[in-house]
From TrEMBL:
Protein name (record): HPr kinase/phosphorylase
Lineage of the organism: Bacteria, Pseudomonadati, Pseudomonadota, Alphaproteobacteria, Hyphomicrobiales
Superkingdom: Bacteria
Residue span, HPr kinase/phosphorylase C-terminal domain: 8-130
Gene Ontology terms for molecular function: kinase activity
Range of residues in the leader sequence: none
SUPFAM superfamilies the UniProt entry points to: PEP carboxykinase-like
Keyword line: Kinase, Transferase
């Protein structure tokens, strides 16, 4: 059974290292730049799911993200505009990335801070400081060292 949560949310999503990653944060915080960095880090294997607007749905107890039809395959690159990239939609979400102000990002988060709940589904969560360029490698580390995040 599939339940669509809302028409769309403001955010982005990618398929990277065999996992779906949902990226959330305020406007202008670097969501599209993070998506671009993740895509460029492994162009043959990574795929855009959605940029700017994401359709979320729950199917069989899993959260799925997809692209609104009008935005499918489009990625905004600041200073370049919209570009067409290979995409995959929908995908099951394994990790939620939230951008927050640096002063709110804990150096050693506890288990509660490493979990996001969306429609009652508990998902692993990574908080990234707005304005730092190394977010893409932190996301890849979170995926590579999955067992370290509880």
């Amino acid at each position: 059974m599939t339940t669509e949560i809302s028409p769309t949310i403001h955010g982005g999503a990618v398929w990277v290292d065999g996992a779906g990653v949902l990226v959330r944060g305020p406007s202008g915080c670097g969501k599209s730049s993070l998506l671009l960095a993740l895509l460029m880090a492994d162009r043959p294997a990574s795929r855009l799911v959605a940029d700017d607007r994401v359709v979320l749905a729950v199917t069989d107890g899993r959260l799925y993200a997809g692209a609104p039809e009008i935005l499918a395959g489009l990625l905004e690159i600041r200073g370049q505009g919209l570009v067409t990239v290979p995409y995959l939609s929908p995908v099951s979400i394994d990790l939620v990335v939230d951008f927050e102000p640096p002063e709110q990002c804990l150096r050693m988060p506890d288990a509660a801070d490493q979990t996001a709940s969306i429609e009652g589904i508990a998902l692993r969560r990574l908080v990234l400081p707005i304005g730092q360029a190394d977010g893409w490698i932190r996301v890849r580390a979170a995926l590579a060292f999955r067992s370290a995040i509880v």
